[in-house]
Amino acid sequence: MTDYSDSFLRSILTSTRVIAVVGVSPNPVRPSYYVARYLGLKGFTVIPVNPGHAGGEILGRTVYADLASIPKDSNVDMVDIFRRSDAVPATVDEALAELPKLKTVWMQIGVEHAEAAATAEARGIRVVQNRCPKIEYQRLYGELRMGGFATGVISSKL
């Protein structure tokens, strides 16, 4: 299911505080980077997860190799997945095992996995597939216009 009510999406965005972004890139023109940057600018704590950049920094925050490496007191309540759909089951299993405060698994545009979603939902975790939290935030909170994003131009710059 990828048809979500506005109230469901709004409840996630208003209750979420800490987001682990799996697959975030340090390249500022990549969608994962500018989505993570945008979410940080909107007040969310963003924890970058990318094994290829572990130990470095993205957006001024330490990059972790995997969800298990994130300190337990980080209180991650949402995982935003920027990985191919076939990588989702392992990511969801790790999130369920390692993140005790997890409330939401969010899969980016083009990312879906029905079985992994069912696994998370069976544990009481909210799941969003094939959507972008940046776009949904902008749409729900008046930052989207008929002509496009707030500036009328899609850009990685805010």
Tell me what you see in this structure.
The protein has 158 residues and is an alpha/beta fold. Helix content is 31%, strand content 16%. It is built from five helices and seven strands, in the order αβαββββαβαβα. The chain has helices at 6-15, 31-41, 88-98, 114-122, 133-140, and strands at 18-22, 45-49, 57-58, 61-62, 78-81, 104-107, 126-128. The strands form two sheets. It has a five-stranded parallel β-sheet, sandwiched between helices. A two-stranded antiparallel sheet has the order 3-4. α1 crosses α5 (133-140) and α3 packs parallel to α4 (114-122). It is globular. The protein starts with 5 loop residues before the first helix and ends in an 18-residue tail after the last helix. The model is unreliable at 146-153 (pLDDT under 50).
How big is the Rg? 15 Å
Global shape: globular
Task: Please summarize the sheet with the most strands.
Answer: 5 strands, parallel
Strand content: 15-25%
Number of helical segments? 5
What is the helix fraction of residues, given as a range? 25-40%
Give the topology string: H per helix, E per strand: HEHEEEEHEHEH
Count of distinct strands: 7
Structural class by SSE content: alpha/beta
- The span between the termini is 31 Å
Mean of residue pLDDT?
91
Give the strand order of the largest sheet, numbering strands 1, 2, ... along the chain: 2-1-5-6-7
Low-confidence stretches: 146-153
